[in-house]
């Protein structure tokens, strides 16, 4: 977990630094936005595109409903964070899982 990158992505997207975001590990994947939004990527240096156009790191960008963000391999780093304006809704029953990483004693491990 890269808390600095998570905070940076959230701030660029207009969220509180600790808001929920998506974390990519080791690259690869795509996300289709279902609504217009602004977003930011931070952390690993990745080959990312929005509808085929390069997505630079640490930049606030706009996506339209139906746009696809594709993430390829990572050139460096291990974790890439995608923060979306307004945050990402997290079911309250997942709140602990969202913050837990027992290997590094981060977050809660209570049920």
Q: Mind sketching the topology for me?
A:
Layout: H1 3-13, E1 22-25, E2 29-32, E3 37-50, E4 53-54, E5 61-63, E6 68-84, H2 95-99
Antiparallel strand pairs: 1-6, 2-6, 3-4, 3-5, 3-6
Offer a concise description of the structure:
Helix content is 14%, strand content 40%. With 111 residues, it is mainly beta.
Keywords, please?
Jelly Rolls, 6 strands, single chain, 14% helix, 40% strand, mainly beta, six-stranded antiparallel sheet, 111 residues
Describe this structure as you would to a colleague.
With 111 residues, the protein is mainly beta. It has a single domain (3-104), classed as Sandwich (Jelly Rolls). The protein is 14% helix and 40% strand. The chain contains 2 helices and 6 strands, in the order αββββββα. A hairpin with a 2-residue loop joins β3 and β4 (53-54). The chain is globular, with a radius of gyration of 14 Å. The protein starts with a helix and ends in a 12-residue tail after the last helix.
Helix content: 10-25%
Nearest-angstrom radius of gyration?
14 Å
Secondary-structure-derived class: mainly beta
Q: What number of structural domains do the residues give? A: 1
Principal-axis shape equals: globular
Oligomerization category of the chains in this entry? single chain
Percent of sequence in beta strands: 35-45%
Mean pLDDT: 84
Q: Give me the CATH fold name.
A: Jelly Rolls
- List segments where confidence is low: pLDDT < 50 over at least 5 consecutive residues: 99-111
Instruction: Kindly report how far apart the N and C termini lie.
Output: 21 Å
The name of the CATH architecture is Sandwich
Helix count?
2
């Amino acid at each position: 977990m890269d808390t600095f990158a998570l905070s940076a992505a959230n701030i660029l997207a207009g969220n509180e630094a600790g808001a929920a975001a998506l974390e990519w590990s080791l690259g690869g994947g795509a996300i289709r936005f279902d609504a217009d939004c602004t977003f930011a990527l931070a952390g690993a240096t990745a080959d990312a595109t929005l509808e085929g156009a390069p997505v630079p790191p640490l930049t606030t960008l706009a996506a339209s409903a139906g746009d696809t963000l594709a993430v390829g391999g990572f050139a460096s780093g291990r974790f890439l964070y995608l923060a979306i304006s307004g945050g990402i809704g997290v079911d309250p029953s997942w709140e602990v899982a969202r913050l837990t990483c027992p290997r590094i004693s981060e977050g809660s491990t209570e049920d």
